[in-house]
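agent: user wants the full assembly modeled, not chains individually. Plan: 1) parse entity lines 2) check alphabet per entity 3) run joint structure prediction 4) return tokens. Steps 1-2 passed, five entities, 1982 residues total. Proceeding.
--- entities ---
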Amino acid sequence: MATNMPADMVTSLVLILLLPLAGFAIQMFFGTRLPRKGDWLSTGLIGISLVLGIVMFIRTLGVFDAGYARQVHWPWIDIGGFRVGMGILFDNLTAVMLMVVGIVSFLVHLFSIGYLHGDVRYSRYFGYLGIFSFSMLGLVLCDNLLALYVFWELVGLSSYLLIGHWFEKKSASDAAKKAFLTTRIGDVGMFIGIMILYAKLGTFRFDEIFAAVADGEIGGSLLTWAGVGLFCGAIGKSAQFPLHVWLPDAMEGPTPVSALIHAATMVAAGVYMVGRLFLLFTPEALLVIAYIGLITAVMAASIAIVQTDIKKALAYSTISQLGYMITALGVGGYTAGLFHLMTHAFFKALLFLGSGSVIHAVHSQEMPDMGGLRKKMPVTFWTFLVATLAISGVPGLSGFFSKDMILGASLAFGMEHSSHLIIFLLLLVTAGVTAFYMFRVVFLTFLGRPRDEERYAHAHESPAVMTIPLTVLAVLAVGSAWGGWFQALVVKPELGQYRTAAVAPAVPGGEHGEAHAGEHHEAVHDETTIPDALHADPEGHETHVAGGDHADHGAAHRAHQIAMITSILAAGLGILLAWLFYGRRLFSAETVRRRLAAVHLLLSKKYYFDEIYAVGVVGTTLWVSRAARAFDTHVVDGAVNGTAWRARGFSWFIGLFDNTVIDGMVNGVAGTVTAWGRQFRRIQTGKIQNYLLGLVAVALILAFVRLVRGF
Amino acid sequence: MIPLQGYLVIAAVLFVLGLFCVMTRRNAVTILMGIELILNSANVNFIAFARYCAPDIQGHVFAIFVIIMAAAEAAIALAIVLNLYKRINSIDVDEVDMMRG
Amino acid sequence: MEGLEQLGTYLVLDILPSIRWFVPEIILFAGFTLAIFADLTTDKPGATRSAWVALGSLVAALAATIAGMGAALPEGLGGLSLFRGAVVFDPLANFFKVLFLVATILVVILILRSRDFGLRKMGELHALLLVVAAGLCLMASSTHLLLLYLSLEMVSYVSYVLVGYVKEDRRASEAGLKYVLFGSVSSGAMIFGLSILYGLTGEMNLTKIGAALAVSPGTEPAVLVASFLVMAGIGYKIAAVPFHFWCPDVYEGAPTPLTAFLSVAPKAAGFAMLARVTIHLFGQAGSLLAIDWPLVMAVFSALTMTLGNVIAVQQSNVKRLLAYSSIAHAGYLLMGLACVDRATGTLSERGLFGVLFYLVVYLFMNLGAFAVVIALREKVSDEEEIDSYRGIGPRAPLLGVAMAIFLFSLTGLPPLAGFVGKFFLFAAVIEAELYWLAVVGILNSVISLYYYARILKAMYLERVDETGEAPPLRLAPSHSVLLVVLAAPTVLLGIFWAPLAGLVQRSVGFLF
Amino acid sequence: MSDEIRLGVFLGFGMITLVSGAVVALARTIIYSVFALLFTFFGVAGLYVLLHADFLAATQVMIYVGGILVLLLFGVMLTHKIATVQLRSASMQRGPAALICGGLLALLLYVIFKTPWPVKELGPATPTVQRIGRYLMTDYLLAFEVISVLLFAVLVGAALMARRETNR
Amino acid sequence: MTGHVLSWTTFFPLIGMAVILAMPRNRPNLIKWTAAAASAVPLVLSVWIFVNFDRGEAGLQFVERVPWIRAFNIEYFMGIDGLSVPMVILTALLSFLCMFASWNINKMVKGYFALFLLLETGMMGVFCALDFFLFFVFWEVMLLPMYFLIGIWGGPRREYAAIKFFLYTLLGSVLMLLSMIALYLMHDPHTFDMTRLWTEYGVYGRTFQLIVYVALFIGFAIKVPVFPFHTWLPDAHVEAPTAISVILAGVLLKMGIYGMLRISYPILPVATVYFAYGLAVLGVINILYGALCAMAQKDLKKLVAYSSISHMGYCLLGMAALTPAGMNGAVLQMFNHGTTTAMLFLLVGVIYDRAHHRDIEGFGGLATQMPVYTGIVTVAFFASLGLPGLSGFISEALVFLGAFPVFQTLTIIAVIGIVLTAGYILWTLQRMFLGTLNEKYKSLPDINGRELFTLVPLAIIVIVLGVWPMPVLDLMRRSLGWIAEMAQRV
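--- prediction returned ---
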């Protein structure tokens, strides 16, 4: 796709991108000197970006063409053998994402003005929000893998800064560090994926990569590894199964931050990436994605049930919902996954801001301290209730539409490949559990009797600047899914669009065979070491990747209806149970907790992931680094300059290592020199006799050597 | 007729005796005697070669010069020995090891 | 009667022309006697009259030698042989003569400025120095067995006296004794070797002996034993291992200017004689390789270098340290003589060039180091322990910088002359494919850095008192001038050494 | 003289030289060494006579016996109090020294008997003094002059070392 | 003047040194300003070179050639190409900034600045010399001042660190001397002229190339430093004064790699290709070993030293790949590491001047007390862990993308290194700057004007090159392409 973006669109997109960055720069240098510490400036700038975003969105709505895409590309690094460019790709998906990021970011800016009023680093906080918005918008707009990676890491940086905003608390700085490092591990996988693609295809641009995939230049296991590699990035950023541990700790940051980053935008980046690069995932890769998503969804939902901290509960709910979206994409439900991304962004942001306003009022995050706030905080309660209804998938609200589509897609996938029916079933259960724990939160926080009189006394409704965003989000949570505009605009891309070479359709079995042909003509022999564990299902069932086989369209429709019915049932059951446990207190949560104590402990300890990682990953690296240091100071240094250095008072292992190995090597090079020196010096006895003896002796030896050799 | 090797053997033995004397005696003067033995052995060599091998008697001239040098050397050596004797009342070479290492 | 006419013609034909080229040595002998008389005429204790006489004659001899260098000489090995083959007048000999005379002049100046001798009559010292200078010149130019022995003994006997000159210092007398005994035994061994050579060929002139040996098969064992014994004599002079034992004690015992002199001039003369013997005796193609000369010399060189450096690391007395360092440098020089040109089978031209060049450079840097020791003699708590040098650097900037230049040049670091010298030696060794020797050489220069830097560490890095600056050290103006005179060539030759290279090339080129 | 007698005399002088040489090296007291040295010099002089080196034999006797031996005797006497005449100068490290010297001797003997010395047929014995004189004045003139200077220097040096420091 | 720009750049500091030596001892300020002026001129000249350098030309420019010693045809042969221009600029810039960083030296001020200017001449000479003998002389000229600068003005164990540095580097350089002579002798009219050594590379046999390559490699590896030869670096850095460790890390470490690219690659192509894999392995070891050791350090300066070892590992990996991206990545990494580490050491110097200790655990919560200082430290730390948007990322990405096609497994292992780097940097950032303020440092003044003057230019370079690296990449790409092509001739 040549650069066919009209000039005015280019300017407005670049403006959208750079305004928050300008905000960041100004805040960092002159923030404190501005009136009201410049919060109006940042909010204003993100506001303008939002308006421009809405204009662009309306424009795409106007065109209303699924295949709509405009692109512009500039050269960046060109050193002969290596060429990289930077560019903007604007299609329907980008428009939607601009809208979502813009709205949530703007509302969070507004909310923060109230929430962080009087904070010691008030202006710097808005600066960080600015750079976050810039990175997130950049990530959404970029048209090549390298730019994606650049913005990917910048988003990681801004989350580090924002989580660690109140760095006086050790837990906050630990959480920030943990977030950055965990996502970085994911980024390693992503970079490896990028390297594989670049090494094979020589380009980073999405369109050129899709074209190459379409032409079959790359395929089979190499493409799968690249896909899995890129997906690792998503695992890290969207807190999927192995690397999800950082998200709950990230709640240390201010609540608006959690709302913005850990609900709506940043964590969604992973889903967006899978969506954007959908075409290069081979069936095997898609299966891996599906199962990872599934495990995450189920696990997170189970943990959310037992959480007492409101923000932790919402965090685990987010992880679970993300698992939902990832599974959707995994089973081929492209539109379903991205649709859920949008709707989830709105109602989860609302939930977080709601909890923020509650915390702001009650000054505690623990649900046991709350209860009965309905009367004290009506607006917060009603908006919170709307969001909970949406997330539980109550028909009519946005959540229902997107979650239903996901269940439909997974059922269709399950029906086609019977061995994968488990996906649909578990998703269904999770839907129910979601409804249960969300309503548990509502009951514990807003309904029932206030458990802490003193806090309840001075609880009060949040000021307007905080409630307005709540209401706006509530409206969006309800209405954003109506009208089916999303399904029309965001349609699953086909490889065909990108096939450049006039390849005769006689390609054996169209895409069908391509997965199997598995021509391994990749010049690069790849023995990448991504562990096989990730590779869920070896025998590669091909899904109906590309659309077009209309024969079983009817089957999809039927699956859709079944899914809708079952999802409503599940939601209802969940709400009922929550009401029984916490509303009417018919069953006491206490007894259940006692009887299933083991399970409860396991869940409350979050399956001991944190402990395993702390001992396993962090512990071993620190131990290896201490061993490296000891090795460096004793053996390498000791051996070379031969100092007889005693490792006193060192751990038993190092001590053992020290006595056995180092004593042997203690007289290193310089050591021998000084030792020789001492020996030779002794023969210099100062007595003349020995001199003469020495003289003749050595001369004689030399003579004999020569005689014997010579003749 | 006395073969050349006869003289050479005597010279060689004398040389070795001189060397042995130098190495084993602790008295500086005895060492000087050892040196004289060595010089004498060299002279015997020269004269023997002048007689048996060389076209002319240049060996004799060399021997004369060696004898003169031996005298000069004895003079210098004794002067130094006596000087040292005045300092440390003994010329036992073993004690002359203040500088070492 | 007919003997007389024959004698007359011989006088006119042979002796007079030879004398014309023998002027420098004659000046020195005359100077010697003059110095003795000059000393007799005054009885003031610290009289320096004899010193000026000595300096005068040395300068005159130097002028004569330089004048002689210009003369056109017959090409080839023999050069202009004087006194019927006893001595030869060729560019190599002239080069060495200039070297010795310059060294002696510098040492006489050092003696003038040093406090080592206290207030005793110095007449004899200057006179005897002249005799040693003459002896050195003879050593460089003699090609006759007897002359070799005489010149060697002339230098040795007089240096025994010079070493023990400060009679009341016990260490000096002890050094004298050791020097005498060791020297006499070595020269005794040398004469025995010479007698064997005479026996084998019946000739006294080195070139003739060389020619005779080439045609007499089966004499290899005898030649080898003879050359070993001769090597004992020369090795003692060079202080090469295993003939080096006397060196540290004598260097420590002798007065510092004398030690400086011993470490430079006689050592260079030893190399001149060794080169002379190897060129003339084993001049014929392949004779060197027959007795496996490269290996023997390489082993000597490696032993000398390593032992010198390794023990020097242990030393805490500066003079003993410089003694072992001079042994080590003898090792580096021997590297040059171990190089045999594979094609012609004779001593390689680049090797000899390296030796000559290195000797000049070594002269300046070594004398420089000793000059610093002398200059500090009464400024520091007298004995020459390295620790007593602590904190000198900042207090005497000129002296500190000079010492740094000398020591870094001795280590062989570029912009300084020592590096260029070592560069030529290593180039020769690599060209002669003695790779293992080259590696031993470079390892030694690294070890040498350790003990040279120890002195600098004491001077600069260690501070006696952490408090304020100690009072700056005032140096006698003449000392400063002397240091500059020695430091300048050490730096200059490191940057631009084309003229010296040209001179050395001319004095070596004619042989090949 | 007939050959047998010459051989007998040669062996006689040879034995005298070597035995007394051994005594010099091994004698316990220094006085024995000095006298043994006397006999060594005489033995060597005898050998010179056998080798028709008449002038050399005379020089040997005069300078060595007359000069150097007396000098050494003074040396010995001056450096020891008369009372302890039989001073025991213990020998040192005899073992290794003997080993070394034995090895060296073997080496020299090997060389002596192995190398083809260019022996020429022996001419009649002729007085050598005149020829030595001629050499001294022709080929060895330079050596002659040099040694004269050397002796002068040695005299100065020895005097310097021996004189008592008067003008302190 | 323009004809001899290189000679002026190299020898102007020497003139400055002479002027300083002539000055009276008791006027430290005058001495400091003259030294600053003396090092300002090479900076101006290097900027002039940067502007006038012809980007299209792969070969040598600003060449000056004067016969020095005709007998051994040694020439004073100076010239630069794409590879040396960034290094010349880096040297000039860091030297100029370090003059200001050493403003509070009060002991033997004259000696310090004189030696510093001599050091600058040595460094500049190494990057401009094209005659192997001249290269070697400049290479060693740097050793003398460095020994004294560490030895006299250093920290408590300065003598040990100084002599250790000297011995290591000398061992390396004597090996280089042997190989220099070997190369010199192999050519018919013996020559040191590198351009001829490049063209007549056919003269050497295969084993000769391997042996000389190894000898040269050890010489350069000690300087880089590569894993087994690195133990001198932490000691030298910890004991050296701030300005010296900036120069040591900023410029001296680059000489090893510059030497290999300038000498080993073009002259010994067969050996280069033969040892390429080995070099990559060493590079990866450097990356991981450096990062691991850094993680366990208590002293901040030692941590930065080990991080330098890790960063130089990237250069080795990039260089070993011989692909355009790899080579350009390696040289860009040299430049970026130069600026980033210079900032880090200057920052360590700032905190050391205030708290008089460098123990990481001893600090805490400095962000509240010294906000501006923390800001700059964050920029420096994030640049060194390779955050996109800052220069570190560009070179690391280029190295990885260049090395991956050639060494798949090694590059994947190396990529893991970026997590370790992020680990120890963030952990240090947390222990020193985040958390509650240690009451001992209630009164610590924030960064002052002079220190800012030394740091801001570097910060600007790091950020600008992160966004738009072409100005520097454009300089070097043709020359590096030429070197890579030469290194692969058979």
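agent: reporting back. Chain A has 28 helices and two strands. The interface with chain B takes residues 681, 684-689, 692-693, 696 of chain A (CB under 8 Å).
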